[in-house]
């Protein structure tokens, strides 16, 4: 199927709402500042010229909203791709690095519903720094920086660097992440009543899943993803083995955190849902049947071992893996393919 001609219409992506989730192939400024989007539900391809991706830095979130940052003024907004609606946020005092990720979460862990006091959190994969602001304050609020300490990362022959969070998920107002210390989970709780948002850190031990392979050899997860699903914390693991100096996938699995026992419980049934995984630890949960996805499956669009625009589909119950992708060549990209997912139905963007 050939892609359509570029459509330069702010509402055009909203018109494709029935096709969400979308895998976006962004070509950047050249030659026509266009984006090809793939609906993984029906395999259709469309080409857009989205104003929100011209001269803006876009940080997609698992909650469906996108943080857009003006490249010149650093003025920020939260963009709902489904409706085109934008919520103004304050300008940043410096441009975020290219290694940043973004989450949106409620500030009160005792209230599972979303509200206008939600926090927008930007975390940098390359340095131990958090950047946050409240949606409630709109453009008159301010971004607050907060640093943290996860120790040092030392590799012989290379400069010593500070460790930073790589995997994080927002679950009922709490930001969970994997600590650098093995089998340790970090949890960041926000201050809802403080004049400025702040995060308090606590940690607890929870042994990461391992795979009993053969001859007494145990495989640790090579790749992990943290995400929220049904108001619970989930972990998806990929276990690779080395064969003739090449990594080969041996096994995969999904796990739910039992916060009472502080342990990961393997699950092969996530109900009528699908997980969507992407570069930089991006991980989201999405209703499956409603959006034409295979329920109980994990869509993995992060080819760290090659340069492919394909994605993998892991069936948790059947234990199978298949590869899918666009049915036409994709021109050179300005960044790795990324997800635009349905916006959480309870997200409130009113200030």
Task: Tell me what you see in this structure.
This protein is mainly β and 351 residues long. It contains 1 helix and 29 strands. The chain has one helix at residues 12-15, and strands spanning 22-26, 35-39, 45-48, 56-60, 66-70, 76-79, 86-89, 100-105, 119-124, 129-134, 144-147, 152-153, 161-162, 168-171, 174-178, 184-190, 199-205, 210-212, 218-220, 223-229, 232-243, 246-258, 263-267, 273-277, 283-287, 297-300, 311-315, 320-324, 338-340. The strands form 8 sheets. Strands 25-24-26-27-28 form a 5-stranded mixed beta sheet, with no helix packed on it. Strands 3-2-1-29 form a 4-stranded antiparallel beta sheet, with no helix packed on it. It has a 4-stranded antiparallel beta sheet with strand order 4-5-6-7, with no helix packed on it. The relative contact order is 0.15. The model is unreliable at 109-116 (pLDDT under 50).
Order of helices and strands: HEEEEEEEEEEEEEEEEEEEEEEEEEEEEE
Q: Characterize the quaternary organization of these chains.
A: single chain
Q: Which parts are unreliable, with pLDDT below 50 for 5 consecutive residues or more?
A: 109-116
Strand content: 35-45%
Task: Give the end-to-end Cα distance, rounded to a whole number of Å.
Answer: 42 Å
> Strand count, sense and closure of the main sheet?
5 strands, mixed
Organism: Urochloa decumbens
Pfam families: Beta-prop_KIB1-4
Protein name: KIB1-4 beta-propeller domain-containing protein
Please give a handful of descriptors for the protein shown:
351 residues; mainly beta; 5-stranded mixed β-sheet; 1 helix; globular
């Amino acid at each position: 199927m050939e892609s359509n001609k570029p459509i330069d219409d702010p509402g055009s992506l909203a018109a494709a709402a029935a096709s969400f989730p979308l895998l976006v192939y962004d070509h950047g400024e050249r030659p026509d500042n266009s984006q090809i989007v793939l609906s993984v539900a029906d395999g259709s391809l469309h080409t857009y010229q989205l104003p929100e991706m011209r001269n803006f830095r876009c940080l997609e979130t698992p909650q469906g909203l996108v943080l857009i940052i003006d490249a010149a003024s650093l003025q920020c907004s939260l963009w709902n791709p489904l409706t085109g609606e934008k919520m103004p946020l304050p300008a940043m005092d410096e441009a975020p690095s290219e290694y940043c990720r973004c989450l949106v979460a409620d500030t009160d862990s005792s209230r599972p519903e979303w509200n206008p006091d939600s926090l927008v959190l930007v975390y940098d994969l390359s340095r131990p720094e958090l950047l946050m602001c409240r949606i409630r304050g709109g453009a008159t609020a301010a971004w607050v920086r907060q640093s943290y300490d996860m120790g040092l990362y030392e590799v012989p022959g290379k400069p010593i660097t500070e460790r930073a969070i790589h995997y994080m998920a927002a679950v009922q107002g709490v930001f969970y992440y994997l600590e650098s210390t093995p089998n340790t989970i970090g949890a960041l709780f926000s201050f809802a009543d403080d004049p400025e948002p702040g995060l308090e850190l606590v940690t607890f031990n929870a042994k990461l899943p391992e795979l009993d392979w053969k001859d007494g050899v145990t495989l640790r997860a090579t790749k992990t993803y943290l995400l929220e699903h049904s108001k619970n914390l989930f972990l998806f693991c990929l276990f690779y083995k080395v064969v003739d100096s090449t990594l080969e996938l041996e096994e995969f699995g999904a796990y739910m955190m039992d916060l009472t026992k502080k342990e990961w419980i393997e699950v092969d049934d996530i109900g009528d849902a699908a997980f969507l995984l992407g570069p930089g630890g991006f991980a989201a949960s999405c209703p499956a049947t409603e959006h034409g996805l295979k329920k109980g499956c994990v869509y993995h669009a992060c080819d760290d071992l090659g340069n492919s625009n394909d994605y993998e589909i892991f069936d948790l119950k059947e234990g199978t893996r298949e590869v899918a992708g666009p049915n036409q060549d994709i021109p050179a990209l300005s960044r790795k393919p990324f997800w635009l997912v349905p916006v959480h139905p309870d997200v409130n963007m009113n200030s």
